[in-house]
Backbone:
């Protein structure tokens, strides 16, 4: 393993200026001062999900169903997990996240209907406990789970009340009791955009891979959710039950054009050919998603912008206190996974050496 340190300074963006209102707007934003670090990971480890704080990095390998505990210098400290249904084993890793404590993680395995709780102590991943999750209603699918202040919160995808021509499915946030059964419905929100697809001669609605996606985060006492059609973020306080909405109206929409479809055909041709309706939709739709993912850093919302070229990629930092906006330039193959302890962490794909890298931005 190796690591590389980069330093960026506050200056005007030097990205190539294009002729759309959106690209001109982004190119004229100030770059936020930061440092970054890249750590190459052995090719035998598949980096599907990353958690990082100031003390360590956790990698979830979905293919091997393993967890790795890694120092911030890149040293593998511990590993655990394998395929199976015994203690500390998995059939799927659907979600992994910190609890409200930075040395504890929760892993959701929907195939085993099990929630696994690990604690990181003395540079080791220690199995703390496992909880069986009930089989919920057939119309509900548990997407994510979080533990805060002695309460579990479950985020479910629902296809209830989905009409044949529906554009979206629905997300529902519940508080759960000690048996992980429903307690209170706290919030409803639209899920990813749907598109029609023919499967074995029948028409179904499936998630649109290039449509408006819904992303969410749990951050301490807050649950925050947004759909990429607009820069509007709904906050729900898990402690007080209060709602707040932050909307940033200053960024022009990403308008569709022929060059975007050409880019998607070149890089994602297999996906487009899998469902002809996707290509047809991309020929006719006017607006494309603002972002791929977002996270929270103090009073700032950090979003990974959608990009449709191989020249540049940016994080946008929205300050909800004063409505200012900055950008952080990142490698074009970078994908943000989250923020913790003033660290924006994610993964880049090294196309030369075919190695995944942990890419961390220190604010």
Residues:
């Amino acid at each position: 393993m190796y690591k590389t340190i980069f330093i960026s300074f506050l200056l005007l963006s030097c990205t190539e200026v294009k002729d759309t209102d959106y690209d001109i707007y982004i190119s004229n934003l100030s770059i936020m001062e930061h440092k970054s670090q890249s750590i190459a990971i052995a090719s035998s480890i598949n980096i599907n999900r990353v958690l990082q704080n100031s003390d360590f990095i956790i990698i979830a390998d979905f293919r091997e169903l393993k967890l790795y505990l890694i120092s911030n210098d890149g040293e593998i400290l511990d590993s655990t997990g394998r395929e199976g249904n015994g203690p500390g084993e998995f059939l799927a890793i659907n979600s992994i996240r910190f609890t409200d404590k930075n040395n504890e993680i929760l892993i959701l395995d929907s195939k085993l209907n099990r929630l696994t709780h690990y604690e990181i102590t003395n540079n080791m991943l220690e199995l703390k406990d496992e909880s069986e999750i009930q089989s919920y209603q057939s119309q509900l699918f548990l997407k994510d789970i979080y533990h805060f202040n002695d309460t579990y919160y479950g985020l479910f995808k629902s296809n209830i009340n989905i009409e044949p021509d529906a554009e979206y499915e629905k997300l529902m946030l519940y508080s759960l009791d000690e048996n992980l059964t429903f307690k209170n419905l706290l919030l409803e929100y639209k899920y990813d955009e749907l598109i029609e697809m023919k499967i074995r001669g029948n028409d179904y609605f499936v998630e649109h891979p290039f449509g408006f996606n819904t992303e969410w985060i749990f951050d301490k006492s807050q649950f925050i959710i947004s759909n990429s059609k607009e820069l509007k973020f709904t906050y729900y306080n898990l402690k007080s039950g209060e709602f707040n909405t932050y909307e940033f109206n200053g960024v022009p929409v990403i308008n569709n054009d022929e060059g975007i479809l050409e880019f998607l055909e070149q890089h994602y041709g297999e996906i487009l050919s899998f469902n002809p309706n996707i290509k047809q939709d991309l020929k006719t739709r006017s607006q494309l998603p603002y972002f791929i993912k977002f996270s929270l850093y103090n009073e700032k919302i950090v979003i990974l912008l959608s990009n449709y070229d191989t020249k540049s990629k940016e994080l946008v930092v929205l300050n909800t206190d004063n409505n200012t906006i900055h950008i952080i330039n990142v490698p074009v193959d970078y994908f943000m996974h989250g923020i913790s302890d003033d660290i924006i962490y994610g993964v880049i794909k090294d196309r030369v050496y075919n190695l995944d890298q942990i890419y961390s931005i220190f604010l």
